[in-house]
Predict the structure.
Amino acid sequence: MKLGHSNGMANDLLFYPVCFTTLAGNFFLLWFSDEISGKDLFLCKDLRVFYSRSVSDFSFLKGEISIDTSNPLVINCVGIEEMLHNGELDCEAFLNFWNMIEDLGESVGRESYTISPRLDSLYEKLICGNNLPAWKSTPCQYIPSWTLEEIEELKSIFKSGIKLLYECVSHGIFVGSEK
């Protein structure tokens, strides 16, 4: 199977497994950062995402693409949903979810639904809540507090993201032995 994308062959890139842990089980997708286009995307063919139930199911692609399986990113959607239900939030977990869902939407040709001026402040709050060294001017830890309105907005983003994920895998290209 020849895999390619608009900027050349897929074997010029390094792919990273991302596992979305959901109530319907685990879904593994292959994510990559395309330095030429400046886009972060998931491996697709004809706007259909490749997915599996196990990272090892992608082994048939060895030789065609390079996959770094040393440390797959796990997006615990079940845990995020539980936290939101309790009015709590792990900034790193939610920011990873948000970013990966944005990349998934772009990969399958969907318009972004989470980029808007009113959501910019939520996104920035999540970034600051990650306490990344490059964003910190002091050694103090920033722990954001969330209003009910903000939590409701994040719940809406989460629900839309889960819906997109399920749509992508239901129309995607399954690689593996067990659906």
About this structure: The first helix runs from residue 77 to 85. Helices lie at 77-85, 91-107, 117-129, 148-170. The CA atoms of residues 22 and 77 lie 5 Å apart.
